[in-house]
Design a protein that fits this description.
585 residues; mainly beta; Immunoglobulin-like; Hypothetical Protein Tm1070, Chain: A; 5 domains; seven-stranded mixed beta sheet; seven-stranded antiparallel beta sheet; globular
Length: 585
Amino acid sequence: MDLTLRVASEIVPAGGWAQIKVYADAPLQIGRGAFALDLDPRFFGPIESVSTFSATGDAIALLSGSDLHVDGSIQSPSGGIGQLPGVPVIVVRAPVRQDASDSGYVALSLPPGAQYVDSPFAPSNYPTDAWRTPSGSLLRTVMVSTFFGKRGTLSVQDVSPNNGFQPSGTVLRFLGTGFSSSTKVSADGVGLSAVTFVSSTELRATLATGQELTGLGFRVQNGTEEKMFFPAAPSKQVPLDPVPDYVSGSHMVIPLGLRSEYGMGPGSGGHTGYLVNPYTTPVDIVVTDGIFSSFPVSRTVSLPPLSTRFVNQGSPGTGTSMTASRPIRMTRLDVNSGGIQVPVDNPAPTIASITNGASQQRGSIAPGEIVTIRGFSLAAASSGVSLTTEKLISGIGPSGAKVLIGGIAAPILYASPTQWNVVVPSEVEGKNTVDLQLFPGTAAANGGGPSEKWTLPVTRVSPAIFTSNSTGMGGAAVLNQNNTLNSPSNPATYGTTIQIFATGAGLFAGSVTGSVSAGAGNSKYPVMVRFHGADYPATYAGPAPGLTSGLIQVNAVIPYTTAESPLTIVVDGVESPSGVSVSVN
């Protein structure tokens, strides 16, 4: 399998800030990888932070280097890194010099000899072995560097708070340069209210919908200038205890799960606790050393707002426990002869992203839309669709597992510890926002307690086309007129009718939550199919026979076009995301 990682080129102002983003050319599940990144000293100042994002929130990284260089080793056991379109694999934040040259390079490479977080051994053939899928399959990797240019005034330095689940009503501070009273701030699938201009270097906005901020893309616009900024956990480290040599100067990325307590056992290799406070208020931590000795000793330390800390084991071999006054992100670093291991176990159920089930993009949800919920510790085991005695798709899974959307159990199409696919209940129609909360069931390893309660904006339609590779980009999930799957080797013929499978087209007459469709009835909204920028009316747009009412079938006649045609559906004037195509002969 091929993976292309590309640094996105941007225009940034002198004296401002740059967030350097590394994207995969196409969505792909990355299990692990390593990289080196170098910044032009004539253009950039010292690196401020480095991070990676996972769709499931299980990203782990060990990142180290100097002012203008970083070596990184990243991992996601579920393959959540690179899985979502439009979300970077890596972000690096650095200032732009006041005396910056007209342009500056960003070099992305594969340095030999780097170690993975999860392995004590360096890869034997680095360019071949560095990047792999979750199952261990090799990813043939190409890395593309770029130049940044100097122009404009708008830049984003940081968002505070910049990580963690933040409830509705949280005030976000946007720091940067070039802000004005007309500067706009938005984020897909997120409600922001009371955007206030404070100064040319600060904006404030109130979060109207409670969500996880890590990896959420904020769009900041000032006239023709626009910047995307992805918040990440802070990298400034002021340790509670002396930083151990093996992580000195390093920045850790740990899974998003919240815990109130955590223990470091009596292992002889040595342990260090790593803590992240995602809140805007301090959190007290009771650290007890010697929990396996006759004389345990406790001490209380305060973790400042939005900060990270290391906690060393008091006496090797005697064990240390940490108890927080409220749940925070904490894990342990296990040291062995070859490197550092970061265990991923069972914290409280953690939602990391909620996306349209077809496009895999964040956004407002629509009644009847199939949505994908990703995270970890979300269920005891995988389960599929089950029907009730009324022949409706059940909203209650094994051991009471369920997702409540607006207080209604959403029909479950699939549930696993890292991913759920559910259908938004039709009853949310007409609402502005609804709460979503996941209950993993009593058989789950974490005890079945609920996740944080997300608040999502509601819209009438949110159309998206399913793709054959389930990434939201590439060849559409389309049947040719002879009911065979459309592909480059099996294209549709001009003048024939194709069947396009999509979701998010809103409600149909008589829609019932969880119903299995007989295929009758058109959408109550007008549906058009766009080929190469020209719109054509759908010959049919309605429920797909025998499937949940959240899946729609759109039939259209192929016009004269090229062999690979961009494909979009337009529902009541709302377009499905781009990047989807159909093969035509």
